[in-house]
Fold this protein.
Amino acid sequence: MGDDRFINRVIVGIIICLTSILGILLCVIYSDIRNTKSTRNKEVPVKTIKIWTIHGGIEDILNEVARTYESKRTDIKIEVTTFKNEVYQSSIENAVITNELPDVFFFWGYEKLKKFVDLDLVWDISEAMEKYYDGEKPLQGAMDGVTYNGQIYGMPVYGWCTALFCNRELFEKAQLQYPNTYEELLTTIEQLKAKGITPMSSGSKEIWLTSLYYMNLVLTEGTIEGVYEAATNPQLFKTEQFYHAAQKLEALIQAKPWGKNYLENDSYDASYDFSQGKAAMILSGSWVAANVEGADSKVKGKIDIISFPEIPQAVGVGGYADTLVINKQSQITQDESLQEAYFEIVKEVSTKAIEKYGIGLPAYENQKVNPKVFPTLYQCAQIAKDKTMHPAYDQVFDENFSSIYYETLSQLVSGQIDSDQFIENVAR
């Protein structure tokens, strides 16, 4: 009897104990559920990175990279705003005046970027790069246009070079060889015109495109060092290197190689006309490869790339000017997670630009242009290989000198002045 009572007490005790434990567990579970619901209902703060860029291939790539990145990082939103090329720089300058620069913006290196660095508008990424950049090592010279006094102010996206694009089909139709010298170029122009073929496509409405001719002619007459020296002393434009180049350009203009509307055409018109088989040649940057290999191109698979006639094999016009930089007032400068995001975005944009979209030349080790997918760009890469190049004059010259140069070049191209006046006006 006593044993039964003892057993009953034990059983009751066990039941009470188990009930208490169950109650505690239910309280914990309920608390966890409430906390989970509270966490779910609480919005995760979203950080927005605003990026400005120019119209073209870089725009599409940035938007693609942004959407992919957002799918992985729900705490970051990326807004990409695009401007037409001809108004982009003025838009940036207006943003400086109104203190409305975006977090990140596309820009050009060398003197253009240096102006912004001197005004303390761009953030030095040197330390952040050491922490967060885990991509391929930049190629030799790739950082020159974004580095000042040992400090780095941006990551290059891709490289470029100047090349002469030739329509193989039209040359074969005219039974002509590609020109190897300046005199052969003038002769080829006359022979093509005699056969009813527009020799060259150009767009002098954007005078920088015509400047490619003069810059290449200058290198046929002298050295790259001469270009850099003249950038700091305009009087050196009176030397034979620049004077003879101006005479050659004047003779080329007088040969009328570009068709009737070259003064009204812009760079897009020029590349489009060439892509439609309306001209035998176009002198332009390697970015044109993407246009002439596009779905609407009538010359795809019919293009050969050569250097400008007589230009030394070891030199050229091009480099690594295109970059993405960070506004010094941006939230990125104070947020390490956003700094990491910047480098990841640049890395992806650069890789896609070269390997998927084919709009630029490699700027980092192990980046490759696929010769089967982008045969024209691949030819440009071979032309640029092992060359020492200087960037466009508006990136080498200071802003005032650059304005004088382009204004005077425009007058020469339109026939308002001759080569003597061109040199006198630039060297003033």
Residues 22-26, 36-41 have pLDDT under 50 and may be disordered.
